[in-house]
């Protein structure tokens, strides 16, 4: 970890808002505000794909194959086989799509829209399997869906929206399982996956609160107050610790089972835009509006779940 720059991704036409590695680490996809998507070979550091679509709202790789998905402003979802560039399009209805999540079996995708609805698609024939609108049990009115996560049981999906609603639903039947109050704009949401029998769901909002629920019993286990609006949540590889990046430049390390803040890192002078964990060296990387990328080592021994 020398901090040496290995590749400068040149050729974009506007601000680059997305940069995502494929799950096998063979490719890096970058996308800009003009809708230009470029895919780079991680081994040769060369450009292998260059395509143009509408304004990109999210960019994500398939969980099992080198297939790249992009959700755009009119609600369409494009996906390409890489490097062949064979393309399919899930049609939109004119409503922006803010997020999408591929199910663990790799055969379906759940897409969240700005009208508060979720659609589940079959990726083989692009048919709509289910459409779920904002449940009437929600405390807040329908709002754009900002974040989603899929459960390893290949059925449950959870989402958080801009109004503060948190919903857990079944993708195989379209049934709503649970509804929670995330208070205000929910920026990030995660299932605890490696210990899924604990039925833990975590969500972070722009008020700096992290809610930890037992979604099966529909109860709040813990509320963690950081007093710094949150931008993203990620788990360490063994899920013993939750890392929460903030709009004030801090990263909080949280024990999910106890609901306690174990460490606080002062990382940047401005908002943290993204955070990722590096298992090989037990470290995390942050990028910020202060134009810096920084690497921090997690030195404390993790708790056992």
UniProtKB/TrEMBL annotation:
Q: Which InterPro entries match?
A: WD40/YVTN_repeat-like_dom_sf, WD40_repeat_dom_sf, WD40_rpt, WD_repeat_multifunction
Q: Which UniProt keywords apply?
A: Repeat, WD repeat
Report the PROSITE patterns cross-referenced here: WD_REPEATS_2, WD_REPEATS_REGION
- At the top level, the lineage of the source is Eukaryota
Annotated Gene3D superfamilies = YVTN repeat-like/Quinoprotein amine dehydrogenase
Intervals holding WD repeats: 9-50
PANTHER family documented for this protein: ANGIO-ASSOCIATED MIGRATORY CELL PROTEIN (PTHR19857:SF8), MITOCHONDRIAL DIVISION PROTEIN 1-RELATED (PTHR19857)
Query: In its UniProt entry, what is this protein called?
Result: Angio-associated migratory cell protein
State the organism named in the record. Diaphorina citri
| Gene from which the chain derives | LOC103524743
């Amino acid at each position: 970890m020398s901090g040496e720059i290995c590749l400068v991704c040149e050729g974009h036409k506007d601000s680059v808002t997305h940069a995502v590695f494929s799950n096998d680490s063979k490719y890096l996809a970058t996308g800009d505000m003009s809708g230009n998507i470029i895919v780079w070979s991680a081994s040769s550091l060369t450009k292998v794909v260059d395509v143009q679509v509408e304004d990109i709202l999210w960019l994500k790789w398939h969980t099992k194959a080198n297939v790249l998905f992009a959700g755009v402003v009119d609600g369409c979802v494009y996906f390409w086989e890489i490097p062949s560039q064979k393309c399919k399009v899930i049609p939109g209805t004119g409503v922006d799509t803010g997020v999408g999540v591929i199910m663990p079996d790799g055969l379906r995708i759940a897409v969240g829209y700005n009208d508060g609805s979720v659609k589940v698609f079959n990726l083989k024939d692009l048919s709509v399997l289910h459409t779920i609108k904002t449940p009437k049990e929600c405390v807040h009115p329908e709002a754009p869906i900002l974040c989603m996560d899929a459960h390893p049981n290949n059925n449950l999906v959870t989402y958080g929206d801009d109004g503060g609603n948190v919903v857990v639903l079944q993708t195989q039947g379209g049934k709503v399982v649970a509804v929670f109050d995330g208070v205000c704009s929910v920026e990030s949401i995660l299932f605890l996956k490696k210990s899924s029998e604990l039925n833990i769901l975590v969500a972070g909002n722009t008020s700096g609160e992290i809610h930890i629920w037992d979604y099966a019993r529909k109860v709040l286990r813990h509320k963690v107050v950081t007093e710094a609006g949150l931008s993203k949540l990620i788990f360490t590889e063994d899920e013993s610790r939750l890392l929460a990046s903030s709009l004030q430049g801090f990263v909080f390390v949280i024990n999910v089972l106890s609901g306690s803040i174990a460490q606080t890192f002062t990382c940047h002078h401005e908002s943290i835009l993204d955070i990722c964990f590096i298992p090989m060296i037990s470290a995390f990387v942050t990028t910020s509006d202060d134009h810096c990328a920084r690497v921090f080592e997690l030195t404390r021994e993790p708790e056992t779940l």
